[in-house]
Specification:
Elements: H1 2-13, E1 20-21, E2 28-29, E3 31-34, E4 37-40, H2 46-63, E5 73-75, H3 82-92, E6 95-97, E7 102-103, E8 106-107, H4 119-131, H5 139-150, H6 152-158
Parallel strand pairs: 5-6
Antiparallel strand pairs: 1-2, 3-4, 7-8
Protein name: Reverse transcriptase domain-containing protein
């Protein structure tokens, strides 16, 4: 997988692959890896789709790895043309989705977050509290347990989200 990352970076450095910028003056992002998962970011146009296909085909030919079409999804910005979305989706044969859903237990967000988007964190804490058999613990044990278990839940999500209200 590291070789695939180098291949994508080489295409970006040579100006063939155009990464995506999430903010006007933000750093461009072409890909993200986690274990054997890959998220590719690119402009929604036919040339970029062909280049991505070229990269994946080259890597597959040399490594023996292949993209699993049933497990692969393609997400488009709401600003992209619907006909272009259909053309690119058909070209790849990947399922087009309106949202990428969850990845490693965290929602992949596509818009500005609202306070209600964090309700799932409070729900997770409530579920933990309901499941406790706290009556069997002394008060000091309950406090220690609460500090160690309950504080870990929001900390995990704070690694990826800025929880500013």
């Amino acid at each position: 997988m590291e070789r695939l990352g180098h291949l994508i970076s080489a295409y970006v450095q040579h100006g063939r692959c155009h990464p995506f910028c999430f903010a006007r003056n933000g750093s461009p992002l072409s890909h993200l890896f986690f274990a054997d998962d890959l998220i590719l970011y690119a402009r929604a146009d036919i040339q970029q789709a062909q280049i991505i296909n070229e990269i994946l085909s080259y890597f597959g030919a040399h490594s023996g790895h292949r993209v699993s079409k049933p497990k692969t999804h393609i997400y488009f910005s709401p600003n992209s043309n619907l006909d272009l979305q259909q053309t690119i989706s058909s070209y790849f044969g990947y399922q087009r989705v309106e949202s990428l859903g969850k990845y490693l237990g965290i929602h992949v967000q596509h818009q500005r977050l609202k306070c209600a988007d964090y309700d799932f964190i409070i729900d997770k804490v409530k579920i933990k509290l309901i499941g406790w058999k706290a009556r069997s613990l002394f008060m000091a044990g309950r406090i220690t347990y609460a500090k160690s278990v309950l504080s870990a839940i929001p900390i995990y999500f704070m690694q990826t989200f800025h929880l500013g209200f």
